[in-house]
Write a structure and sequence with these properties.
Largest sheet: none
Number of helices: 11
Helix content: over 70%
Number of strands: 0
Structural class: mainly alpha
Order of helices and strands: HHHHHHHHHHH
Shape: flat
Strand content: under 5%
Length: about 350
């Protein structure tokens, strides 16, 4: 871009150089020029310190992140182990349930097959009185066998065998004599078994369960108050006798004689008292269930535990507690499990006779 001579400023006159003095010393360099290397060093040191602080801070954060990550990995590993354990338990439970389901399905199929076979048998034999009688006898023997094997119910099995023998007696068939002898032999074997009165034992256990809440605990017993006659006698004595009696009472307190072989009365909190009574009820209920299942081991174990708790925590001087202990002892000595005989041979003989009769009819 061109500028006119009018626009440009006039050149300034150059100053005249001063004459150097011959005797004047050389001027020192400016101070800022001497401090420049020191300032750069300080800036470098500060930069290094800032870098070191940032590096240390980053390293601390990285260490904290590593620890957090390691903790989370450990927690995740623990959870994975627990999940694998739970999954394994679930798989085992599923496998066990599948096995039980298979067994139940097979039993159901067998029961359905038996029911279908019986229905077909009943329909086929509906026109023949003898065939009906044979079917009913076989059904009675089957019921007796099932009652003995599954429930151990001797009374029901005995009734079923007696019903079958009565039906055979009404048929009056000479070829059924051997079958009647087998049924009578089984009846005698069942009559020779010891009788277990399940209903009476269950009623006694129910009465004990109802009495648990009213039985007094040992820690609830309070000492008997002093006899008023002793206080009256003490008031009638003179001063000298009261002095000697008080002195003797103080001397007796210096020595205490205690029987160490006797266990102390256990003290229970209100919540512990509640759970004690509930656990005692559960023990008695478990004994009743074991009685119905003919499980003598569990039955005796529950009654033994109940007796131990009554003797330890309850007031054994109370009449109700004493009666409960005696009843538990009697129930514990009762036999609830008996070895029932096998009557399947009689059932098989009846089936063989029926099959041979059907072949002969064809």
């Amino acid at each position: 871009m061109n500028h006119s001579p009018q626009d440009s400023p006039p050149p300034a006159a150059a100053p005249e150089p001063a004459a150097p003095a011959a005797s004047a010393p050389r001027a020192p360099e400016p101070a800022p020029l001497r401090r420049k290397p020191g300032s750069a060093a300080w800036i470098a040191v500060l930069a290094v310190m800032l870098f070191a602080w940032q590096w240390y801070d980053n390293r601390s954060e990285i260490g904290a992140l590593r620890q957090d990550l390691a903790r989370k990995l450990a927690d995740s590993d623990t959870q994975n182990k627990e999940s694998r354990l739970v999954a394994e338990q679930v798989r085992e439970a599923v496998a066990e349930a599948q096995v039980k389901l298979g067994v139940l399905e097979s039993r159901l199929a067998e029961s359905q097959n038996q029911q279908i076979a019986l229905e077909a048998l009943y329909q086929e034999l509906s026109r023949n009185r003898d065939e009906w009688a044979y079917a009913e006898i076989e059904q009675s023997l089957l019921i007796a066998s099932q009652q003995l094997q599954l429930a151990g119910n001797v009374k029901a099995a005995l009734n079923a065998l007696q019903t079958a023998d009565a039906r055979l007696q009404r048929l009056q068939r000479p070829q059924l004599t051997g079958l009647r002898k087998a049924i009578n032999r089984d009846i005698e074997r069942l009559k020779a078994l010891p009788h277990v009165d399940t209903v009476a034992i269950s009623v006694r256990l129910d009465s004990l369960i109802a009495q648990v809440d009213g039985l007094p605990l040992a820690m609830e017993v309070r000492p008997q108050p002093a006899a008023p006659a002793a206080a009256a006698k003490e008031a009638e004595d003179n001063l000298w006798m009261r002095f000697w009696r008080d002195t003797w009472a103080e001397l007796r307190q210096l020595v205490r004689v205690q029987q160490m072989d006797k266990a102390d009365v256990p003290l229970l909190a209100p919540s512990q008292t509640f759970f004690l009574r509930e656990n005692l009820k559960l023990r008695l209920i478990g004994a009743r269930l074991a009685l119905l299942a003919r499980d003598a081991t569990s039955y005796k174990a529950d009654l033994k535990a109940a007796r131990g708790w009554l003797g330890r925590y309850y007031d054994t001087r109370n009449n109700n507690v004493t009666h409960a202990l005696a009843l538990l002892r009697t129930l514990h000595e009762a036999e609830v499990s008996i070895e029932v005989p096998d009557i399947t041979a009689t059932l098989e003989a009846m089936r063989s006779h029926r099959l041979s009769r059907e072949r002969g009819g064809r």
